[in-house]
Amino acid sequence: MVLISAQEISIRAVTEKDAELLLRNPLSYANTYNLHLPNNWPYHNLSAHLPLYHDLLQKERHNEGYGPWIISAEGNIVGDISIQSPPNKKGEIWIGYYICPGERLKGFATKAIKQLCNWALSQHKIKTIYAECIHTNKPSIHALRRAGFVWYDCYQDIEIYKLREDEK
């Protein structure tokens, strides 16, 4: 299990056992780590990603960390952040994140992005990290920029940002 705590928040990599708990009974997961569970959690993106990640870990346990992480602060689950898949041959990954509605604009996204990217870049396989968001989501754009990402490209209404190991 990988747990990173700094700057008032913790991010915890979802293990195979955690994924099983989250798929069966999210409250059991929260109780295991003494965390308060927000209403209607896990949200759509995490719920969609969990079965795929669980299957990946069953086949290749060394991929732990290359999937969802749970963001918590002061005993509350405040969101999730994910590495979408293991790195490709160029050492590239994509991340995504979601902060619970009542926890937004408190700096949790920026802190979680920094923590996850520091961990990812320490894995020696990863050279570039990408993230995307809708161009109208100014808080998300600011979180990426504060975490060191720079604008890279756009596609329709989606902006793509990147963070390179040598630019960190």
Q: What features would you describe in this structure?
A:
Residues 9-167 form the N-acetyltransferase domain. Keywords: Transferase. Pfam families: Acetyltransf_3 (PF13302). InterPro entries: Acyl_CoA_acyltransferase, GNAT_dom, N-acetyltransferase. It comes from Salinibacillus kushneri. With 168 residues, this protein is α+β, with helices and mostly antiparallel strands. It has a single domain (3-167), classed as 3-Layer(aba) Sandwich (Aminopeptidase), CATH 3.40.630.30. The protein has five helices and eight strands. The protein has helices at residues 16-24, 26-32, 44-59, 108-121, 138-146, and strands spanning 3-6, 9-13, 68-73, 76-83, 92-99, 128-134, 150-155, 158-164. An eight-stranded mixed β-sheet has the order 1-2-3-4-5-6-8-7. Strand 3 and strand 4 form a beta hairpin. Helix 1 (16-24) packs across helix 2 (26-32), helix 1 packs across helix 3 (44-59) and helix 4 packs across helix 5. The longest helix has 16 residues, at 44-59.
**C-alpha termini separation:** 25 Å
The CATH homology group name: Gcn5-related N-acetyltransferase (GNAT)
Overall helicity? 25-40%
Strand order of the largest sheet: 1-2-3-4-5-6-8-7
Strand content: 25-35%
Report the CATH topology name: Aminopeptidase
On the 0-100 scale, what is the average pLDDT? Answer: 92
CATH class: Alpha Beta
Structural class: alpha+beta
Q: How many helices?
A: 5
CATH architecture: 3-Layer(aba) Sandwich
The gyration radius over C-alpha positions equals 15 Å
